[in-house]
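Fill in residues.
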């Protein structure tokens, strides 16, 4: 019997195969904007992908992160060039976890229908939530807030219509929304290792901002948002690893050497088996994390999923290149695109060392 998750997966897979094949990915990654606006709006309007985990009162479908993780897995498999992660995994959860229903009613409907895109600046780098790394400051000028400081690496920061920022103010750490075209905000696109995912340097010179939530009360929501984004990034990494595994196995079956498929050689068999073990281990961790709802449990599950998915994607992407031999190292083959995505994603929201250390701390502080 086909489940709703299977139907969602198939719908997303078919849509992405038709709209973002390899040649389209390569064309878009070489543009400054980095995505096709029509395709992004179709994702929102035809498939409702932006609204899956958004409450119905804000124009969403009211589903959970488990369903959204399925979408991100397929996005990762296709190396989708779009500000989907920044909008759906970062900005929307940040607004929802702030508890500001008026802000959610004002901002989220334009995000879920694809009219606007958004991003979130948690800290000076693409790292997980840590209040000590917040680089921006907010100033209250008679009830009107302005933001100052620099954010060197912001996902899709050069195109986002709404830039959400964590900033220190007199009350503590607060969340603010800055219009992408606001006076006092300059945005500079950057060249990154993963050309399919765009980043930018943002400078705030007294840019006007809207307070989201209560002053000084953003830390808890941003910590939760960071864990949600980490789980969805792990799902995306899982999708990339699965695609690399499928590509490697397919090539091993088709490539003939010494009169037989290279997949019949013991060394290649063992390598493919090891790839499968890593992928399935990552899948278990991601599925568990996506189904976890309690914040304390989510923190542990998110780190486990990110650690497992990062390791699996890196190893499988590299082995995919090796199984393809010299062909896998050429610019014309897509293997290097997945390798670049694997390396860049492994560093986002905490690398393996960060999450191993975090897990040790979380487990040590958990009552027996």
């Amino acid at each position: 019997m086909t489940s709703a998750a299977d139907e969602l997966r198939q719908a997303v897979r078919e849509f992405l195969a038709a709209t973002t094949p390899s040649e389209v990915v390569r064309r878009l990654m070489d543009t400054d904007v980095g995505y096709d606006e029509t395709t992004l709006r179709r994702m929102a309007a035809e498939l409702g992908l932006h609204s899956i985990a958004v409450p119905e009162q804000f124009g969403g479908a009211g589903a959970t992160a488990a369903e959204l993780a399925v979408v991100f897995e397929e996005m990762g498999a296709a190396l989708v060039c779009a500000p989907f992660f920044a909008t759906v995994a970062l900005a929307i959860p940040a607004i929802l976890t702030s508890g500001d229903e008026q802000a959610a009613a004002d901002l989220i409907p334009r995000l879920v229908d694809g009219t606007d895109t958004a991003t979130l600046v948690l800290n000076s780098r693409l790292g997980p939530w840590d209040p000590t790394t917040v680089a921006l400051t907010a100033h209250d000028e008679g009830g009107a807030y302005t933001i100052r400081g620099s954010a060197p690496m912001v996902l899709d920061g050069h195109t986002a219509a709404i830039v959400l920022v964590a900033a220190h103010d007199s009350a503590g750490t607060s969340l603010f929304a800055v219009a992408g075209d606001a006076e006092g905000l300059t945005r500079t696109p950057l060249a990154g290792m993963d050309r399919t995912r765009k980043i930018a340097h943002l400078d705030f010179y007294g840019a006007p901002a809207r307070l989201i939530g209560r002053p000084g009360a953003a830390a808890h929501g941003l910590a939760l948002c960071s864990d949600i984004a980490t789980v969805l990034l792990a799902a995306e990494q899982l999708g990339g690893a699965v695609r690399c595994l499928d590509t490697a196995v397919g090539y091993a079956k088709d490539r003939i050497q010494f009169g037989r498929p290279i997949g019949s050689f013991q060394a290649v068999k063992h390598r493919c088996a090891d790839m499968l073990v890593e992928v399935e281990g990552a899948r278990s961790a991601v599925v568990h994390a996506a189904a976890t709802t309690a914040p304390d449990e989510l923190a542990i599950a998110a780190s486990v999923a990110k650690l497992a998915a990062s390791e699996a994607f890196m190893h499988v992407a590299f082995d995919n290149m090796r199984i393809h031999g010299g062909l896998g190292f050429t610019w014309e083959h897509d293997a290097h695109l997945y390798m670049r995505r694997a390396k860049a994603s492994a560093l986002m929201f905490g690398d393996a060392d960060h999450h191993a250390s975090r897990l040790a701390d979380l487990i040590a502080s958990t009552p027996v």
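The two ends are 40 Å apart (CA to CA).
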